[in-house]
């Protein structure tokens, strides 16, 4: 029987009764400790169990400290004198800024421009369509290329500067991927830099896809959208703050607990909704309608109302009434407001309306009423039955709209400008890359289509 059996048994320790035998059996300078507190230092002097534990922790800390890697920090730019550190980094592509004077230049077609948006730019405040947002994130900066249709649109807006919006109600049409959203953004940026009042809705689908709350109003017999109306008011004030401080209400605005007298500036009107947001959000549709009426009668500034994914307003909505019957778009407050300006039922004394259809929204195809009004038979990919019904109300809201067709193909100069942008940000290619051959190959493969030229051509290259 081993002498150490009693150390491992359960119950009280019998070390006191066997201490004489243990002292004879164990060698000198040796101590007994459990495995938990064993220090691992068998050759050192005798220490207590607790001391061995602390010594081991100290050794572990020293070892851990020795294994810790030092902190590396970048050198200041002043110390990087070697030419190796001065190579051009991706994204540093210097080209002229987007300005109205550069667009009107006779030789501006095919020239790339950089959009440098200020803090109150429509691009920052209203947002962008998803397709443009993805490309601008890849480019790290918003770039655009002037096309011939860009100059035509700018000339159209120049004529509408002092005319009623009844004369300029345009919808951008064309084949999928031809650049309609880019053209609409160029028109918005041009007007923002030409002292226009800009109202830009980049994602018209959000007006009808039931992503914002709605409530029925007995007075107007419409389904109000207070959340979306409040967002539009807030963004309109941010983008057009200078103009809103000069334009006033033409008549009294009666709210729930106060009345805004005629002559109150639009900035003060919108501030009422923003300051008391929790109570005034429900009244945002009423305030938005009053602000739009004030913009209709004023003549200080021209007004541009631009809507992307415009075809969604004329199709089916995802909103439902209490009987779960789909609600028509003209029974929703914000889509009805836009459609009234598009159809000419309401107008600005100075300004224009521009919409853009989008084929990327498969859940919101172009409805028959809008196809008939814009004569979009060439975009029809299905057989039209003579027995298909048209909604007469939607036909009335589409009356008077004029199509502005965007060319299906890029010209060589326009494609070269786009190619120069992606080459300048070093999105593809390397030293010795055959850029000329690649440009002609991608232009031919895409058949000149702007979207395919970038996504299926440049970005799908093995050298991208």
Can you walk me through this structure?
- With 464 residues, the protein is of the alpha/beta class.
- It folds into 3 domains: 60 residues, no CATH class; 236 residues, no CATH class; 47 residues, no CATH class.
- Helix content is 38%, strand content 9%.
- The chain has a 5-stranded parallel beta sheet with strand order 4-9-10-3-11, sandwiched between helices. Strands 1-2 form a two-stranded antiparallel ribbon.
- The N terminus is likely disordered.
Structure described in brief:
The protein is an alpha/beta fold and 464 residues long. The chain contains 19 helices and eleven strands.
List the helices and strands and how they pair.
Elements: H1 5-8, H2 19-25, H3 49-67, H4 100-103, E1 112-114, H5 122-125, H6 130-139, E2 143-145, H7 148-159, E3 169-173, H8 180-192, E4 197-201, E5 215-217, E6 222-224, H9 226-239, H10 241-244, E7 253-254, E8 259-260, H11 266-275, H12 277-280, H13 284-297, E9 303-308, H14 333-343, E10 351-356, H15 368-374, H16 392-397, E11 402-405, H17 412-424, H18 435-445, H19 450-458
Parallel strand pairs: 3-10, 3-11, 4-9, 9-10
Antiparallel strand pairs: 1-2, 5-6, 7-8
Helix pairs in contact: 7-8, 9-11, 9-13, 11-13, 17-19, 18-19
The low-confidence runs, each spanning 5 or more residues with pLDDT under 50, are 1-34, 36-49
Fraction of helical residues: 25-40%
- Globular, elongated, flat, extended or rod-shaped: what is the shape? globular
Tell me the Rg in angstroms.
Answer: 36 Å
- Whole-number mean pLDDT: 83
Compute the number of strand runs: 11
């Amino acid at each position: 029987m081993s002498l150490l059996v009693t150390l491992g048994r359960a119950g009280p320790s019998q070390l006191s009764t066997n201490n004489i035998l243990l002292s004879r059996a164990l060698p000198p300078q040796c101590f007994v400790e459990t495995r938990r507190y064993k220090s691992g230092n068998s050759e050192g002097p005798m220490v207590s169990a607790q001391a061995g534990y602390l010594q081991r922790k100290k050794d572990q800390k020293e070892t851990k400290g020795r294994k810790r890697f030092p902190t590396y920090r970048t050198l200041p730019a002043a110390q990087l004198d070697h030419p190796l550190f001065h190579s051009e980094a991706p994204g540093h592509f210097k080209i002229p800024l987007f300005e109205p004077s550069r667009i009107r230049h006779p030789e501006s077609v095919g020239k790339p421009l950089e959009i440098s948006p200020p803090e109150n730019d429509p691009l920052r405040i209203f947002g962008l369509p998803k397709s443009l947002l993805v490309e601008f994130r890849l480019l790290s900066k918003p770039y655009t290329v002037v096309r011939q249709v860009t100059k035509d649109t700018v000339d159209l807006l120049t004529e509408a500067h002092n005319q009623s919006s009844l004369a300029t109600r345009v919808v951008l049409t064309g084949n999928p991927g031809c650049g309609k959203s880019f053209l609409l953004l160029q028109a918005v940026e041009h007007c923002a830099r030409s002292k226009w009042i800009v109202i830009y809705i980049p994602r018209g689908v959000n007006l009808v896809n039931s992503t914002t709350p709605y409530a029925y109003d007995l007075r107007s017999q419409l389904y109000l959208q207070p959340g979306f109306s409040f967002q539009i008011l807030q963004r309109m004030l941010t983008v057009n703050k200078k103009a809103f401080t000069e334009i006033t209400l033409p008549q009294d605005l009666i709210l729930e607990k106060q009345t805004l007298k005629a002559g109150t500036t639009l900035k003060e009107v919108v501030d009422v909704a923003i300051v008391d947001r929790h109570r005034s959000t429900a009244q945002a549709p009423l305030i938005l309608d009053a602000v739009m009426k004030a913009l209709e009668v004023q003549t200080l500034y021209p007004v541009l109302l631009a809507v992307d994914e415009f075809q969604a307003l004329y199709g089916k909505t995802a909103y439902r009434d209490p009987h779960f019957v789909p609600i028509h778009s003209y029974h929703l407050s914000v889509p009805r407001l836009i459609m009234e300006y598009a159809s000419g039922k309401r107008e600005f004394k100075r300004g224009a309306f521009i919409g853009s259809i989008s084929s990327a929204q498969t859940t919101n195809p172009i409805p028959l009423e809008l196809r008939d009004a814009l004569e979009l038979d060439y975009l029809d990919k299905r057989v039209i039955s003579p027995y298909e019904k048209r909604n007469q109300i939607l036909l009335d809201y589409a009356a008077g709209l004029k199509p502005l067709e965007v060319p299906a193909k890029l010209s060589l100069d326009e494609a070269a400008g786009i190619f120069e942008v992606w080459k300048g940000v070093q999105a593809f290619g390397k030293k010795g890359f055959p850029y000329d051959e690649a440009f002609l190959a991608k232009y031919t493969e895409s058949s000149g289509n702007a979207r395919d030229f970038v996504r299926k051509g440049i970005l799908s290259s093995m050298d991208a």
